[in-house]
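[Target chain]
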Amino acid sequence: MYKACIFDLDGTLASTLRSIVYFANEALRRCGYAPISQDDYRYLVGNGADRLMHRMLVAAGGKGNDTLENVNALRKIYDELYESDPSHLVTNYPGMQETVAALRKKGLRLAVLSNKPHNCTTAVVDFLFPKGTFDLCFGQHPGVACKPSPEGALLIAKRLGVKPCECLYIGDTNTDMQTGAAAGMDTAGALWGFRSRRELEENHAVYLAEKPEDIIRVIDCGKR
């Protein structure tokens, strides 16, 4: 029986792609680079801000452009822009608030695990959901490895007082499926997110969810 749900943030719990594109392209512009398309960002994001900066520099300026100096300069501007208004252009996915409320009503413990910096993660969650909706909210922390390391997911399970096998991990990318599997958790692939059905299937998603409400079905009909 599942006792907890752990949600990825970007592309799973919240529709944040337009927000990321806005701040990332503005940071590129200020550093003298051309913008990157929104569709390209679907495959650039997901492994933390540092990896995003590397990928953006290669996409915008070519291989070898992602020097440490360039990455640090771009990251500084990106962080300043993003932290100025983390909820800019962020919206809910249809049905997500109702789904989360229903899971809460069923007595499940709820948490968020993101590779986004912690302060921005909490700002977005607080913007979209009533206070106290989630028992824990973890963004990127110094000393805790980014996903797909299972470290953050296992830490959440421990703090919630549940076994990893009692957690359903919900995400929209290969990184999320790998994280949940490495932590010994069942995974649900969010088809409304940034990546494809094929990617989720190839990374062994236990369940596939077409819409947020399907998570309730998984909880009701899934492992007992």
Remarks:
- Residues 53 and 145 are 18 Å apart (CA to CA).
